[in-house]
Write a structure and sequence with these properties.
CATH class of the largest domain: Mainly Beta
Number of strands: 16
Organism: Rugamonas rivuli
CATH topology of the largest domain: Lipocalin
Shape: globular
Protein name: YDG domain-containing protein
CATH architecture of the largest domain: Beta Barrel
Number of domains: 2
Number of helices: 1
Radius of gyration: 16 Å
Largest sheet: 8 strands, antiparallel, barrel
Strand content: over 45%
Structural class: mainly beta
Length: about 200
């Protein structure tokens, strides 16, 4: 679980590394619910796309991300940083080894709800984070690459605005109220991934 101030959708304004390099152009979406996260990072030239989804743990000012699935693959490196909230909508992250600094700003999203799903016929995991205006979906096997797509709500349906896929599923109909009704142990289907049965 994370403190309530972490929950929502965060966008990165920039990263500055100790080697002197920086990046102010990569599009980054960090979806954070009470327990789970989805993170997608897409450079302007789409070379070096990466992302991950899993559980977040906050201890004091230290935030640690524990991915269960990732693109292009899970890494054995520790992903953690020291967090400093400058105000309710801006947070500064410093690597534990001081190798980088990142600035994040909150994208208005409303309350963020997160759920972890497990496919009944394979080892695939799915993570769905959803608010009134934004949604992120990540699914894949821990031993392979996962798919990650960011959606925005338009005219009562979800439209894909960013993805590591060249042709993500567009115009998905899925209600937040429906997701909020899911209970642990339920078998559900997700419109983004038709044909797969998931256990909550």
């Amino acid at each position: 679980m994370v403190p309530a101030e972490y929950e929502g959708l965060w966008r990165r304004s920039g990263i500055w590394r100790s080697n002197g390099s920086s990046d102010l152009t990569t599009q980054v979406w960090w979806f954070q619910a009470a327990r789970y996260h989805i993170d997608l990072r897409i450079p302007v030239d789409r070379v070096g796309i990466n992302g991950f989804a899993g559980e977040t743990v906050v201890e004091g000012t230290r935030c640690t991300w524990h991915p269960a699935i990732a693109y292009p693959a899970l890494s054995g490196e520790l992903d953690a940083g020291w967090m400093r909230f400058d105000d309710a909508d801006h947070v500064h992250e410093t690597g534990l080894d001081n190798s980088y600094d990142e600035d994040w700003y909150r994208e208005p999203s409303g309350p963020m709800h997160g759920v972890r799903l497990a496919a009944t016929q394979s080892d695939q995991l799915g993570y769905l984070l959803i608010s009134d205006e934004w949604m992120a979906w990540a699914c894949g096997s821990p031993s392979g690459a996962c798919d990650i797509t960011v959606y925005r709500r338009e005219r009562q349906q979800w439209t894909a605005i960013a993805s590591n896929l060249p042709a993500p599923t567009h115009a998905v109909t899925l209600g937040k109220e429906q997701v909020l009704q899911w209970q642990a142990g339920d078998l559900v289907e997700v419109a983004i991934q038709p044909g797969t049965t998931w256990r909550v």
